[in-house]
Amino acid sequence: MEKAGKRSWLTVDVRQMQCLIEVARLKSFTKAADALYITQPSISKTIKGMEEELGVVLFDRVGKRVELTDAGQLIVAQAQQIVASFQNLTAELDDLRNLKRGHIRIGLPPMVGSSFFPRVIGQFHQRYPEITIQLFEDGAKKVESDVADGLLEVGVVVLPTVQEGLSSFPFVEEKLKLVVPTDHPLADRKRVELHELAEEGFVLFREDFTLHDRIIGECKKAGFQPRVIYESSQWDLISEMVAVGLGITLLPETICREIDEERVRILSLIHPVIPWKLGLVWREDRYLSFATREWIRFAQEVLSSPSSGSGEMRRSKKP
């Protein structure tokens, strides 16, 4: 291929940039094609065309995964800014035309979506049938990062946030509970102190989940390094592994209410109590489309209602 700079960056269109960004985000041509609702050969052809047009290799193929080259990282960083600017321009023009339609990309951790958002999404769709919603399921750390980077308009994360420049609306605050097998020596207790779990094997969420780091951090404060036996992205699989005696886990109260208590025992954790606080987040310095602003307002209204089943709530910055 020719050296970078021989071709014109201006000949690459926004659609090609979106393809590039999705492949880089998902590290897979197939997953990127699914996310963009196009075929895998089409996205491969698009990336190949960009490489030929720009005169650089954008991705290294490593088995079934792809990784950005140095040139690819540079171009993706610029493409993200260009696509964000284009999307902001499009959204502002739509608002000027007073068209109550649009598309929202929302990030949800897998264990949060089914507990809080089907009703919110259903009611929102009834009111605004022309606004489409695309859900991205990832751990809270990844969701927060993607909102900060402008890849998602809104996300649900575990508070407090790490990334700067995010506004938030807390909608639930709970505590983590200890989940053990029914035949575990602690099963008949009502409360357990964290340091008593020093010799246990833990079943935790994966590293891209905020709870992973938080639980390990609290264990270290209690004087021990937890022995992690298994990791998963699915709370139901984690509870099943505990039920068959593969280890113990710590889960939020909302999730514990979904677990079959005939198969496990759910105990209060004390000294320390580990909080689990969820919130909606969005970029405070980015233009928000009508659809996104209305989604945030609507979600605040529904999640703040007494019938929502959420825990203690309060409002933060308005969109």
UniProtKB/TrEMBL annotation:
Location of the HTH lysR-type domain: 12-69
Taxonomy, superkingdom: Bacteria
Record-given protein name: LysR family transcriptional regulator
Record has tRNA-binding as a keyword: no
Gene3D superfamilies, per database record: 3.40.190.290, Winged helix-like DNA-binding domain superfamily/Winged helix DNA-binding domain
NCBIfam families: trans_act_CidR
Keywords: DNA-binding, Transcription, Transcription regulation
GO molecular function list: DNA binding; DNA-binding transcription factor activity
Cellular component per GO, a single term: cytosol
Signal peptide range: none
Entry keyword Hydrolase: no
Entry-linked PANTHER family: HTH-TYPE TRANSCRIPTIONAL REGULATOR YBHD, NITROGEN ASSIMILATION TRANSCRIPTIONAL ACTIVATOR-RELATED
Assigned protein family: Belongs to the LysR transcriptional regulatory family.
Organism: Paenibacillus faecis
